[in-house]
Structures are given as C-alpha cells and as structure tokens.
Amino acid sequence: MSFKKSLPEPLSLDPSLHPLQRLAGQLHLLKQLPRTGWVIRGVHQVESVAAHSLGVNVWSLWLAARHEQRFDVTVDRGRLLVLATLHDLAEAVMGDLIPLQKKILFGEDPQQQKEGVRQAEERFWKGLKETEDTEPLAQFTQSLVGDWTELWQEYREASTVEARLVKQADALDCVMQATVYQRTENISLAVFSRLIEKAAPNDVELQGWLQEQWEDSNNG
Predict the structure, then answer these.
(1) C or N: which end of the chain has fewer Cβ atoms within 10 Å?
(2) Hey, what CATH topology would domain 13-160 get?
C-alpha cells in the first residue's frame, strides 16, 4: 500500500466561500471518511471519522461521571462535549493518519511527526477561519471558529481535566469498537489492545473489565 508524500491542498477551505459552506463541506467529508486503522486490517463495515466522534462524545460523558464519582469533583460537561466534538475535525483535510503514514509524511522521529501533525491541524483551523465575506453570519462564524481553535489547542495540550478525559475517551472508543469488530467480524485486532491502558489510566477496575472484554471478544 502506498501513501501520498504530501498533504492534500485544502481546496474546500477557499476563503471566497462562505464559512458556513466550508464548514458544511468539512462535515460532509468526515461523515464519509472511513477510519484508516480498521480499513487496512480488513474490517468490512468500517465506521466513519464522524461516527467515531459520536462515540468519543458518549464515552466522554461516561468518563466524566466516573471521574466525578471517584474524585468528588465537578467536570464542565459543556466544555467536555465541545472538545470531544471538535477533536478530529481537522481530519477532514488531513485524513485519518495511521503511524505508517505519519512516518512517510513527517519522518521517523516521533517528535517530528507530532510537530508535522500539529502544523497540519493548525493549517486546517486557519483555513476554516479565514473569510473574504463581510456579511454578519460569515463574521460570526469566523469569530466562533477562532474560539474553537483555542479549544482545539486546549485538547492538543491536554491542559484541562476535560481535555484529558476526551483523550481518554478517544482511546476508550477505539478499544470498545475493536471488541465489537472482533465479535461481529471474527477478526483479530490485537494491535489495539495497547490502548486499554490509555483508555483507563489509574482506574484498575475499568482497566480489568476492559481486559476481560478484550479477551472474550478475541476468543469468540
């Protein structure tokens, strides 16, 4: 399998288009874009990136409640759901990059890969924000995307408890989806078992349950 060695030009981010048109285009792409990791491992009914984002939203809510129960604190649900909804929006332009693609695009060094992904995501957010339209709805959307860009940065840096819970939910959704695929498609997805620890950091009860579910689904 070969991959392009450069990221595609974000033609759908043309600043001459109304910001709402550009946003609709990005959402359309995410609804159609299959998750690469499942595709290359032979899954037949592959979820889209948008479907994964729904899973992250739901698991974020579950993890927030779990976090509050365990630590007697309050999680900002509104902020949590905004972060979960926006976390993969840039994949409309970047695609759902797997580790091999990151190596081809950005080199062998993990830090260089992270920086390459960060720059590509920044490029997306900048393109989504730019507009040549002075009409009120366009200006409102431009300002809102600016706010979203700051929240995306919060998620990337995991600088708040809400951002960290969304990152955990991202891993949890992958683990739970893998167990579903292993049961329904009779396929082994062993590589994704490494995400169990990320899905349940410092939660021995949840981590043990996930491990049991993984083994059951892999032996089914």
Answers:
(1) N
(2) Hypothetical protein af1432 (1.10.3210)
